[in-house]
Amino acid sequence: MYGNILNVTTLNNYINSIFRAEELLHDISVAGEISGFKITKGHAYFTLKDENCQIACNCFNCAKTYIPKDGESVILKGSVDYYSKGGRLNFNVDSITSIGKGLLAYKLELLKVKLAKEGLFDTAYKKAIPPYPTDVCVITSASGAVINDIKKTVRRKNDIINIYVKDVKVQGLDAHKDIIKALEVVDEMNFDVIIIARGGGSAEDLMPFNEEELVRAIFRCKTPIISAVGHESDVTLCDEVADYRSATPTAAAEKIAYDTQELKEHILYCGKRMKSTLLNDIALKAKDLNGKVNSIKSQVKLNYIQNANIINSYIQNLKIQIDKTISKSEGKYTSVLSRLTADNPLGILQKGYWYVSKDGQAVLSAKFLQQGDTVSLKTHDGQLNATITEVEQ
User: Fold this and answer.
1) Angle 363-369-374 (CA atoms, 0-180°, nearest 5)?
2) Residue 289 has pLDDT above 90, yes or no
3) What's the rounded Cα separation, in Å, for the pair 211 and 108?
4) Burial of 53 (0-12, 13-18, 19+ CB in 10 A)
5) CB within 8 A of 135, min separation 6: which ones?
6) What mean pLDDT value characterizes the chain?
7) What pTM value is reported for the model?
């Protein structure tokens, strides 16, 4: 019945861990009305409410942000916090923005939150600005002082960057549409970088650079975008979505205007370093090559000696085999010659024997002859004919 019992500390700490782990409750913006605002020892405590609900809020070191009045509509940026010891839910405020000045600021903040959630301001999507651009397009008013400042700043360091100007409206109704059209055109022209620029002005003057359509158009661009709108304190949504934000148009010019003389000197220095490195590499490679050549020579010589010994061994073995074969053949030859000599009729005739033939046929028996027959007698050194005068059987 009483199993799994928690004490208050464990329960509150567990609730607090849940709030800390929930990312959706951190770094969020909440709009509402201030009630019961008071400052104690530099910290502000108040309630934020709307027509249905309310939440307790704390703003520590409130001097760092805007100080509102009761009943004022504001946007609070901060995180939800659960105070374990007191068991209280609070909204810890990092900054307070008044929207009592008008609905415009409120809508702008909501738009910023919306676009941020979609990831349009994420650094992962921001393209790098080329360190040595050649062709740069500036989208601005061709009749304003901004373009002259940019050109003047660039030319102090660099006279090889081609600066193109796309004339647009930078203030007033539908100015953002004019900028979007220009962006769509120049983004297809293979510029190294595009600068969107205008000088300072009031919040209302800079509103075209907070338009959602323009923000999305900048996000879609393939070309790196530098936003140089207003003064350093002016931050627009165009600044947030651009690949690089310059505090002023002059700062944007400084960003792209690399010093050509310094670049030349750097290239020469790199050339010398490369030459020195190359010569060192060649020397090391030559030394290494000589070592390998010598090693190959030694190996070839060793192989030659080893192969020569093998060949000599083969030659000696072959000579022995040839001698054996010749000796064997000579024996056979002597044997055959002896047999041939023994069987040679001339040899027999040399011993005093005669070869007797009659009418070209050998006379092998006396019975084949009779008195009066003519025979031929051959010996080893001649032949004679004779007539048989008597036959004895």
Assistant:
1) 85
2) no
3) 9
4) exposed
5) 161, 162, 164, 190, 191, 192
6) 87
7) 0.50
For 54, other C-beta atoms within 10 Å of its C-beta total 13
Q: Are 36 and 71 in contact (CB under 8 A)?
A: no
295: phi then psi, degrees, rounded to nearest 5 = -65, -40
Order of strands, edge to edge, in the sheet holding 382-387? 361-362, 355-358, 374-379, 382-387
The identity of residue 137, as a single letter, is C
32 within 8 A of 49, measured Cβ to Cβ: yes
Furthest C-alpha separation in the chain? 183
Residue where the block lists tokens 């940019």? 150
User: Token pair for residue 209?
Assistant: 């650079």
For residue 136, the model assigns a pLDDT of 96
Amino acid at 313: S
Considering only CA atoms, give the Rg of the chain.
58
pLDDT at 334 over 60: yes
How many other C-beta atoms lie within 10 A of the C-beta of residue 40?
A: 8
Lowest mean pLDDT of 83-92, 122-131, 246-255, 372-381, name the range: 372-381
pLDDT at 102: 45
* Tens of pLDDT, residues 165-212: 999 999 888 899 999 999 999 999 999 999 999 988 766 678 899 999
Tokens of 59: 């703003």
Q: In what order do the strands lie in the sheet with 193-198?
A: 162-167, 135-140, 193-198, 225-229, 244-245
HEC per residue, the chain? CCCCCCCHHHHHHHHHHHHHHCHHHCCEEEEEEEEEEEEECCEEEEEEECCCCEEEEEECCHHHCCCCCCCCEEEEEEEEEEECCCCEEEEEEEEEEECCCCHHHHHHHHHHHHHHHHCCCCHHHCCCCCCCCCEEEEEECCCCHHHHHHHHHHHCCCCCCEEEEEECCCCCCCHHHHHHHHHHHHCCCCCCEEEEEECCCCCCCCHHHHCHHHHHHHHHCCCCEEEEECCCCCCCHHHHHCCEECCCHHHHHHHHCCCHHHHHHHHHHHHHHHHHHHHHHHHHHHHHHHHHHHHHHHHHHHHHHHHHHHHHHHHHHHHHHHHHHHHHHHHHHHHHHHHHHHHCHHHHHHCCCCEEEECCEECCCHHHCCCCCEEEEEECCEEEEEECCCCCC
Q: Which tens digit of pLDDT belongs to each residue from 2-51?
A: 667 889 999 989 888 988 888 889 999 998 888 889 999 999 999 998 87
